[in-house]
Amino acid sequence: MSGFRSAFSFFTVLPIKGELEPDLIAYLPFVSLFDAAVGVSLYVAVYRYSILMASFLSISSIYMLNGLNHVDAVTDTGDALMVRDKTRLKDVLLDHHIGAGGLFVFLFIYLLSFISLSANRPYMAIASIITAEFLSKSTMMLILHRSRPLFEGIGSAFIDMYKRHPYAYTAEFLIIPMAISLIFPAAIILATVLTLLFYVILRKLLNLKFGGINGDIAGFTGETVRSILIFTVFMLSQSSMLSTYDILSKIISLL
Predict the structure, then answer these.
(1) Cα→Cα distances 252→184, 227, 245, 249, Å
(2) What is the pTM for the complete model shown?
(3) pLDDT tens string 208-250
(4) pLDDT in tens, 39-78
(5) Helix axes 186-210, 215-237, angle to 10 degrees
(6) DSSP states of the chain
(7) Distances in whole angstroms, Cα of residue 91 to Cα of each of 79, 85, 95, 133, 217
């Protein structure tokens, strides 16, 4: 149970004491389940009165449960993405002052998920909250696979943890979000697949830009994937592809 406590201690603001256990990565889906449960509960409790408020509380609660650590990761990485001189990348990532780039990237990611969630139908919004949370945490870990640490820190520690069981962790973080998506309509499944393809491209671009991974970049990846999944679900929900039959028919027609 030490790994379980460690996962909640590190990734949430819950008052749980725990050391940074090497096997905490394996228990991250339980954190995703907890975050999703809180986000969905707030959405369900409020959406009858205001979908805007329900969406705001749902997304914001997940950020706050994570201790706003990933907000810091998004803003730091956003600032670094605006830097052209690669010799300054490390300094910008370590500088916790928020610049224009970090502020813009955070607002873009946050507002994209908030607006997409508030514009969607309640059932699809709930499905996207749940799936996005699992996929967000999964890609945050998947980006550690075969990645070079930029410098010593939390990121390098997690890369070393991932190396203990790389194939088992990769299977876990690919299978779980896909299995979760299978519970919901086919639009969610397709959105999950498309978002995973987006993640592959994003990973490639981030490695080209930075030449490695640190904790901020991993956190940025997870939050970006969350936003893209919620947005993709919204876009698919507005199309005619609302059922498994419709989606499969369209895919088969393209083959």
Answers:
(1) 21, 28, 10, 5
(2) 0.91
(3) 999 899 999 999 999 999 999 999 999 988 764 445 555 555 5
(4) 999 999 999 999 999 999 999 999 999 878 888 899 999 9
(5) 150
(6) -HHHHHHHHHHS-S-------TTGGGGHHHHHHHHHHHHHHHHHHHTTT-HHHHHHHHHHHHHHHTTTHHHHHHHHHHHHHT---GGGHHHHHH--S--HHHHHHHHHHHHHHHHHHHHS-HHHHHHHHHHHHHHHHHHHHHTTTTPPBSSSSHHHHHHHHHTTSHHHHHHHHHHHHHHHHTTS-HHHHHHHHHHHHHHHHHHHHHHHHHSSB-HHHHHHHHHHHHHHHHHHHHHHHTSS--SHHHHHHHHHHH-
(7) 11, 11, 6, 30, 14
**Residue type, position 242, single letter:** L
What are 149-180's pLDDT values in tens digits? 988 888 899 999 999 999 999 999 999 999 99
Taking the C-alpha atoms of 231, 233, 235 and 238 in order, what is their torsion angle to the nearest 10 degrees? -140
Q: Which two tokens stand for residue 227?
A: 């936003």
pLDDT at position 91: 80
- The rounded distance, in Å, linking the Cα atoms of 132 and 114 is 13
